[in-house]
Amino acid sequence: MSEPFSVVSLAIAGGRGRISSLAPAAAPLEAQQLIAAGLTLLQRSAPLVRALSGYRSAILLPASPSWFVALAASEGRGALLLDPSSTIEEVDARCAAARVGALFTIASMAAMAPPGVAIVLLDDAPNHARVLAGHREQQVDLGSHHGLSLEAAHDVPGRNEEAMLAHDVTGSRESPTSWSHAALLAEARAAARVACYETGDVVLSLLPFSRPRSFCCGVLAPLLAGAHVVASADSPMTSQRIVLADQATVVYGSASHYERLLREMHRRASPLPPRALRRCLCEGPAVPRDLAERWALQTNLSLEPIG
Q1: Do 4-141 and 180-306 agree at the fold level?
Q2: Cβ-count burial of 53 within 10 angstroms (0-12 exposed, 13-18 middle, 19+ buried)?
Q3: CATH 3.40.50.980 for domain 180-306
Q4: Using one digit for the tens of pLDDT, what is the confidence trace for 7-34?
Q5: Under the phi-then-psi rule, with left for phi > 0, alpha for psi from -120 to 50, and beta for the rest, what region is 21?
Q6: Distance between CA atoms of 69 and 238, rounded to whole angstroms?
Q7: Domains in the chain: boundaries
Q8: Residue 226 pLDDT grade (very low, low, confident, very high; cuts 50, 70, 90)
């Protein structure tokens, strides 16, 4: 590949950021390791390659490091992003409409997989994966690889081929929106210029990865800058804990997330956020004035719109 960083997964690896989640809490993992594990899965599983031949993949995972393994293993085809809160009927209909051949998920969500679709269980990623295709089960070792060694220009335009497919936030549209590598990388780089992410940042991302625009602003952009992204379980108490633990330097969430955080601060009579927190980014083109005023009064920090 002449320009490896024109592909979203390889651009993430090239950023050399880190990823962790709060549910369950665990040490951060290198983005390079996760992307390498996904590419290894694609190389070592012939049943998975056959299932994806001429078809898309689908990702039904919580916001977590394993999500990036699935993204990398979807290389060369568009990945349908499914919200973990979707119903079985929604997953079945959307997978059928998008012509999905394999679903990346975890054991607790495996029952959501449509009949006839190969299932890839990533409970033990980035070390191992289980591929269930037809009546066969394959255990795939993802850990014994040589990693990634990428040397290329970073700010190259993305490839004009589909990387992701997702329905809108409300789910009201029957037809999903297709996102190319070019569109995702352009969106993320624009967000990075607004957010001014830095290599040393710890970014608490409160929104699901299944929404491409939010993924670009709160996950992809900081990872391209080499930051550490913490995927939250969308619990106000959990989110508040990391904010007050003097770890997060940037918080990215929706207006409703900041409302919950304010309620939690008032309930606990919490002090102002710690000195490490420097920016609070709110999804959308504008922040409700009342919320912005109350947030500034409580924290002495501005609530900045992004995306």
Answers
A1: yes
A2: exposed
A3: yes
A4: 999 999 999 999 998 766 678 999 999 9
A5: beta
A6: 25
A7: 4-141, 180-306
A8: very high
> Does residue 173 register a pLDDT over 90?
no
Q: CA-CA distance, 34 to 26, in Å (whole number)?
A: 14
Q: Are 189 and 224 in contact (CB under 8 A)?
A: yes
Domain spanning 4-141: CATH 3.40.50.980: yes
